[in-house]
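Predict structure. Input: DNA replication and repair protein RecF, 370 residues.
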Amino acid sequence: MFVEHLQLKNFRNYQDLNLHFDHQINIFQGDNAQGKTNILEAIYVLALAKSHRTSKEKELVQWGQSFSVIKGTIQTRRNSLKLEMQLTSKGKKAKINQLEQRKLSDYIGAFNVIMFAPEDLTLVKGSPQYRRKFLDVEIGQVSPSYLYHLSQYQKIIQQRNNLLKDFTKNEKNKLELLEIWDQQLVEYGSKVISKRLYFLRHLEKWAKEIHAGITDQNEELSILYKPSFPLELGNIDVQDMSDQFTLRLQKIRKQELFRGTSLIGPHRDDLYFSINQIDVQSFGSQGQQRTTALSLKLAEIELIHDEIGEYPVLLLDDVLSELDQKRQTQLIQTIENKVQTMITTTSTEGININTLKRSSIFYVEQGLIS
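Output follows.
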């Protein structure tokens, strides 16, 4: 799939913008704070109904305006889609071919993107929260059921935590309510974990192959899911997982009541990366950590293709300058002639010359594009 046309109204520093893109590589060049990243952000919001930079939607609306609109024409192998995202103080409205979608989960997945920004290079050594977000964003694009189960789980966690904080001894009615929340926590939490395990098995297959190629077959990358409680993973099914989850909740009941919060579940899980059986987060070099992050992002591209039969659009936000020529070459070889790519950069110096030859270059200055 590819973005053919993008139209912005009152988005960030763009009052009115119309852009037509090359089907292969598009480079946006300009100094910092000119609006390059805003274009990639708009495409990201068009796909996922949220920004990768801020959770405050009012920041996406141009100063002094009450609304923002992002429109895009997306070409897939099967058809052409007209997507629209409206942002106002009252919330978001999403449309596909002019039909408003009742739920955002009905909208997300129509158009797929992979964002690779400098902060993604810290995917390995950053906080567990960042790795969970990585899983949730990518799985959510290809699995509407995962989005639903995750959303339900998050609501339950919030309600359960409120109850735990307000719990005092011998309150029978609250204890009965807690048991109800426990059942729902286990039900949706087990489904979230199960889908993550499925996703990671397929992601690891591609990441291993890509990482081995980058390192001339000298390094073997492995990915391990780290649940927040003892869990026999293997070929475990959802029912077995639910049983283990329930038993663990019973064992830590007093701890949770004392601390007033939910101590286990997918909201506290993490990922573990190793190279040649050595922990990359603790002992890997900066180069190994960056190669791992790059391998994961490139593996995502192939995984989405496996799942939906289409390659996503790749958004590279000022990240090529962070990669040496070897890693740039591996990236370009992966996307060549099959993945539409949007690149932002302050300078084309250092970018692979073959990449530049096949690119459409847009110059960005103070919100104006030429």
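The longest helix spans residues 172-214.
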